[in-house]
Amino acid sequence: MEVDCEGCAGCCIDWRPLTGRDIDHERTGPFDPFDDSYNLVPLGREEIRGFVEAGYGDALRPRLWRATDDRSVTLDGVDVAAIDGRPVFFVGLRKPPKPVAPFDRPPTWLRSCAFLDPTTLQCRIHDGDLYPDACSTYPGENLLLSTETECERVERVHGGRRLLDDEPPDVTPRFGPDAVGERVFAHPEPDRVAGRVERFRDGELTPADRAEFVAVAAASSPGTLAVNGDRYEQVLETVLEADSWAGRAIETWERAVEGIGERATDAPEPSDVEDADGAPPTPGW
User: Fold this and answer.
1) What DSSP string describes 183-197?
2) Where are the domains of the chain?
3) Whole-model pTM?
4) Of the chain's two ends, which shows fewer C-beta atoms within 10 Å, N or C?
């Protein structure tokens, strides 16, 4: 598997506003998410713990799904996907608007991974200890399952070659019962989720909302629905206190955005927002 990422970052950016074509999310299950975060990176339990311990709890966000069958629990009048009555969720990396210029386009406000450098379009944690497995193996799982990759979507719309080798790598798909407690988590107290569903739907999650789900995920046990109460409390406090350069940059970008898909003519300099505040450099091509 070989890809050409230079000037692209199509899997890290929601580039749909740059085209009038109907391009949907990459879906890895039967349910539709409440949020519209494009290509949310699903983190494993140990990866979530790593981000929290590194002080990046403020760069994480959960995802809930709408239910279409009896695998659900009704909260706030909405059917939410569930296991044994417990709402199920992913945890991924937040995607704030950033002034980015993929595919030789002018700088445009597009939702981008919290760890993507807007200038180089490279990942600031690439090949580091925190670099998610889902990112390092992408698009391996797609190729293994014969599912269209983001590389191919970019090729179809913007031309060029991004997927240089479509031979599936040795990747094990991360879904099914074995994913419970590892990649798919179940909230043990639906009553604590009630009241938050509308904020999931409207994209208005609070820091406390995000911390609640991150703490449950980090305190989950692989292969079960069990949650360690002591670890939950510890992680919850740590996430609520998180104040990383990534979290601060998200706040700055959200205040500065002029409109998703709009030209970023008056955007702050990315180096002033991220690099000057302690963001790690990118590796270069």
Assistant:
1) TBEE-S-HHHHTTTH
2) 2-273
3) 0.94
4) C
